[in-house]
Amino acid sequence: MLKIALEIDVAGFERQVDDHMAKAFAPAVVEALNRAGEAGADAVRQGMMTSFDRPTQFTLEGVGVMKASIRTGGGDPSVLIYLKDRTASYLYLQVFGGTRHAGDPFTTKRGPIVPGPKAPRDNFGNLPRGYTAKAMQEPDVSWVTLKPGEPPALVRKRPGQPLEVLALIVNEVSFQPQTLDFDGLATGGALDAFGPTFEQAFDIT
Question: According to the lineage, what is the superkingdom (predicted)?
Fold first, then answer.
């Protein structure tokens, strides 16, 4: 999980205000933190839109916020902006770079599946959901080994027609580091929003 936490020293502020003001201060901080947390998450989503090639809705919805609350036992409230485990498991390599091998998340036991030159692609450049299973229902489509010792490929061979490669299982897929600065986007977006949202929550004029 990729995550960034923001914490506000409520006690430090409360020492500067009287008891009456302190009672209203903590809820205002919590409300402002939660609004700022949402702003930080939105900043990460906007960063995904520019850093990645057509990110899916699943990817964008993988940005989560664990909201702050007033702690009855004391302590400073904090908000957590994070990538959900499943999203972080495949975005990690796209953010930091690296190689995905067989058996890694979103791969087969033989290796990652990538579109072949004759494969249709969805709006995000990937194989459509369920495409390989649907293609396998065609009588002229099958998995074959194109090169000895290499993972198989999903091909279509129609009588009198050239061989069509629909999908490939490859040994590995390498990713170059992207420009998504998760920590910077989450922190910057949240801190930029905290001041104005705190003023609104605390009704500072």
Answer: Bacteria
- Residue 46: both structure tokens together: 């906007």
Residue 167 sits in the same domain as residue 181: no
Beta bridge partners of 91: none
Quote the CA–CA distance of 192 and 202 in Å, as a whole number: 17
As given in the structure block, the two tokens for residue 54 are: 């057509």
Residues 50 and 78 in one domain: yes
Tokens of 185: 């986007």
Say if CB 36 and CB 6 are below 8 A apart.
Answer: yes
Q: How many domains does the chain have?
A: 2
Neighbours of 55 (CB within 10 A): 19
* DSSP collapsed to 3 states, the chain: CCEEEEECCHHHHHCCCCHHHHHHHHHHHHHHHHHHHHHHHHHHHHHHHHHCCCCCHHHHCCEEEECCCCCCCCCCCEEEEEECHHHHHHHHHHHHCEEEECCCCCCCCCCCEEECCCCCCCCCCCCCCCHHHHHCCCCCEEEECCCCCCCCEEEECCCCCCCEEEEEECCEEEECCCCCCHHHHHHHHHHHHHHHHHHHHHCCC
**pLDDT 10s digits, 139-165:** 999 999 988 888 889 999 998 989 999
pLDDT tens digit sequence for 113-134: 888 988 888 765 778 878 888 9
Ordered strands of the 63-66 beta sheet = 3-7, 78-83, 63-66
